[in-house]
Specification:
globular; 5-stranded parallel β-sheet; alpha/beta; 6 helices
């Protein structure tokens, strides 16, 4: 995935489902989502344990989200990624974004074979910060 590809994703897609989003401000999922929300992205929390996170309605699964999802940003244990990918395919997501430290080759291959863009070993917050000037310029 090139820098230009990452920039294109950040420019074109604004509906981001965050799987594994925690309401705990010390957790990376919260910090990343809070940043992206403040950067004017639509953050859709996905975690069956909560009703709301960051003031947004929280859904039990990707399949429960009533609006289109473009990016699925994943903060789950690597063992659960294939299940997330299958849900992302089912709802017509465009991108699977695996945060730093999340690895599941079978899930990555499944996502790619279904036509999803896969971002691995990158943090969406870090990438947005890196490309902030270009994103603001349009």
């Amino acid at each position: 995935m090139s820098e230009l590809d990452t920039l294109k994703i950040l420019r074109e897609y604004h509906n981001i489902a965050v799987v594994g989003l925690s309401p705990n401000p010390s957790r990376p999922s919260y910090q990343v989502s809070d940043y992206m929300l403040r950067a004017n992205y639509n953050i859709i929390p996905v975690n069956p344990n909560y009703k709301k996170v960051l003031g947004q309605v929280c859904f039990a699964s990707l399949r429960d989200i009533p609006e289109p999802v473009e990016v699925v940003d994943v903060f789950r244990n690597s063992a659960h990624i294939l299940e997330v990918v299958e849900e992302a395919i089912a709802i017509g997501a465009k991108v699977i974004w695996l945060q730093l430290g999340i690895h599941n080759q079978a899930a990555v291959e499944r996502a790619r074979s279904a036509g999803l863009i896969v971002v691995e070993e990158r943090c969406i917050k870090v990438e947005h910060s890196r490309h902030r000037a270009a994103l603001l310029a349009g």
